[in-house]
Write a structure and sequence with these properties.
Blueprint lengths: L2 H24 L3 E8 L4 E3 L12 E4 L5 E4 L2 E2 L6 E4 L7 E4 L9 E6 L4 E15 L8 E5 L4 E4 L2 E4 L3 E6 L4 E7 L2 E4 L8 E9 L2 E19 L3 E5 L4 E10 L3 E5 L12 E6 L7 E8 L10 E8 L4 E11 L3
Length: 318
């Protein structure tokens, strides 16, 4: 072998070793986490550092399914596209991201070297987790510990704030997925709204809270003195949640109904003001000494009842 041939082979070997070192360096795996927005386009880059080496690449998912080869799409062909903006770049486009594309993607050379690994995290607006959150209507017994849960998923993690009433006034100092009310009172019955927000949008849940408590009855006057023939007006307030019934009984113990002698009026309670007002009227020119006695106002709850009494005394004419 001549000297020139020896020099030429030596140079070729050195160039080969040099190129292989460059290739080995270019094939070094680069790990990237890529945030992609739900229902938007997302591109995953793959780049081989510039050098004079012709190569082809393939994209794989984490199950080692081949997605693309060169410029050809082999899986999800309606939602994937390959672009080659430079001779050493192969960009994989996800045209419309959904949750199924949250995965790890590998860009590999045709001879099996990995160029990059990209973990796709799908970002999306907040959505309520129905299974883990409170229902639309929650009941608590008075003086118990009340807890409302609003569990939202979303990426980035949403911030949850709490609001009260139809105008959704913010509850100061309360943030996060739980609202805790210790020793809850009946006046806390209201609508509560949790609102979750991140950079992609908002979601909310309105929860009606009803505080249950046993009946309480209060008459306006516990003793009444009237003259025969006068109109008599007796009033009472009944509080309970739930309130199943409210009524008057007369001096004989009979439930009073509106008729020729009695008139009943009733002001119903509202959702957030659980008080019912009842008025019993004995009409004018009717009451007599025989109507004396105890008139009782009753309130009936779910598991108990309460009552209060008006003692009616009637004076004769003259």
């Amino acid at each position: 072998m001549g000297f020139k041939q020896l020099i030429s082979q030596t140079v070729q070997i050195l160039m080969f070793v040099f190129c292989m070192k460059m290739v080995d360096g270019a094939y070094r795996v680069i790990n990237i986490t890529k945030s992609c927005v739900l229902n938007h386009e997302c591109k995953l880059p793959c780049r081989l550092e510039p050098f004079s080496y012709t190569i082809n690449v393939l994209w794989f998912n984490n199950n080692n399914e081949m997605l693309t080869r060169g410029n050809q799409v082999h899986k999800h062909y309606r939602n994937l596209r390959i672009e080659k903006p430079a001779y050493n770049e192969w960009v994989l486009y996800i045209l419309r991201v959904n949750q199924n594309f949250a995965d790890k993607y590998r860009c590999k050379t045709s001879d099996g070297y990995t160029l990059s690994e990209i973990t796709v995290v799908v970002e999306n607006e907040p959505r309520i987790d129905e299974q883990k959150s409170s229902s639309f209507h929650e009941h608590f017994h008075e003086h118990s510990l009340a807890q409302l849960n609003c569990i939202f998923y979303g990426s980035p993690k949403p911030e949850v704030t709490w609001h009260r009433g139809p105008s959704k006034e913010p509850i100061e100092g309360i943030k996060g997925p739980k609202l805790i009310i210790r020793d809850i009172e009946r006046y806390a019955s209201d609508n509560y709204t949790c609102i979750a927000t991140n950079e992609h949008g908002t979601d909310e849940r309105e929860i009606k809270v009803t505080v249950d408590f046993d009946p309480e009855v209060t008459v306006m006057e516990s003793e009444m003195y009237v003259t025969g023939g006068e109109m008599v007006i007796m009033g009472c307030s009944v509080q309970a949640s739930p309130l199943q019934d409210a009524f008057w009984t007369n001096h004989r113990g009979d439930r009073v109904k509106s008729n020729w002698k009695y008139k009943l009026t009733e002001e119903k309670e509202t959702d957030h003001f659980p008080v019912r007002f009842l008025e019993l009227i004995i009409k004018k020119n009717i009451v007599s000494k025989q109507d004396e006695g105890n008139y009782t106002c009753y309130g009936v709850g779910q598991n108990s009842e309460s009552k209060d009494v008006v003692i009616l005394k009637v004076k004769d004419f003259g």
